[in-house]
Amino acid sequence: MKFIIKLFPEITIKSAPVRKRFINMLRKNIRTILKRVDENIDVSGVWDHIEVTTSSSDEILVAEVSDLLSHIPGIAYWLQVAEHKLVSLEDILEKAIEAHSETLAGKTFCVRCNRNGKHDFQSIDVERFVGGGLNQQTEASGVSLKNPEITVRIDIKNDRYFMTQKRGEGLGGYPLGSQEPVLSLISGGFDSTVSSFLTMKRGIRTHFCFFNLGGHAHELAVKEVAFYLWNRFGASHRVKFVTVPFEGVVEEILTKVDNSQMGVILKRMMLRAASKVAEEMEMAALVTGEAIGQVSSQTLPNLAVIDSVTDALVLRPLITMDKQAIIDISIQIGTEEFVRNIPEYCAVISKNPTTRAKEEKIAAEEERFNFEVLEDAIQSRRMVSIHDIIADDLTREEVEVVNEVHQGEVIIDIRHPTEEEIKPFTMPGREVVTIPFYQLRTRFPELDKDRHYLLYCEKGVMSQLHAMHLREEGHENVGVFNPKAGQ
Fold this sequence. Notes:
By secondary structure, the protein is an alpha/beta fold. Helices cover 40% and strands 22% of the residues. The radius of gyration is 27 Å and the shape is globular.
């Protein structure tokens, strides 16, 4: 099966060297991602589009490739096409009738043709000839050039032409890795997950920095959403997940700092720590999820005082966005379900927080703070590659991983409904139930406590994270089923 990948328009207006570099990078990213489902995928790049050819026309494979293409930064849209040798306009009409006669029945339509190369006809000639033929030789209700119910798309490239079978929308943005890397401060809430997504979409290789205020369970929950973001939108590049233990810093603030200044000082401590981590990782910018005026620490005066502690560039993709707009993006990208089940850890809450922090007053409060505590937190940070994100936790929480399912055990397919629909999982003689990962936390306690459950996902990473999370909450009757374990 062949796909035609259309570039995000901003790529096409770049200078020739930059455009070429971006196309090469996008082609490499597409190949890296699609090799997850098709080892023999063929990806070739040209000036105005990229062509992807799968090793077979298997329905599940085509569906998986379609889904992955819709989540790769740099793609405006993709077309699933049938490729033919250009013989004549009559042949194009014949192939169009074969491809569209059923879908055109009772519908209005138009024909749109894009043509590259030297031919003895124009694009409008193709549209008129094929459109007239379809109108006469199918049960279409008529031609509508302004508001058609169906658009028949034909792309002619020199001596070939492509008949579009399906169109899918892409993410837009730039190819991942086309911009300098950044360190995103992620808490697991709406704002930090959406801001991380937006930098990834813009082509920025985005690493994650988490300040742990709520213990191991909180850390696991944030790792789950960070892994989801990377696996869904950024798996063409490997990134790091950094955990900085901040309980001691919070204790210092609570015991040493004036109540009204706590929120601003906590943010300053986080920026100091993140700047140090970013510097050692050779990153020049930080990303936060702050939106102007959303909470007391996010007023313009407070943000100015917070930023004064670092020379690093602080990016705030959400700075002018409304909360509902942020939530809408979260729903769109699939992180809203994670966030709903991650408790808020507001370890520093001021009764009367300042909205107009003064640099000199904040500095005076920080003189009582023991900065050795902050330095210890930075030195005690843990860093793990996100593609192997569970390794850091296995030393603290043992989780059972098996490649066989015994009689009486129940397999829980925790994949996203889209994945489950594309590639349903069954096992003859064994009970399989579907509970999406984002519903596990609320639905698992309702299951029969006398039965043993094995979580299943495609690669075994999300299932292990969720199993550890459930065990943290006291559920001992849970493990992981991974058919490839031990291989």
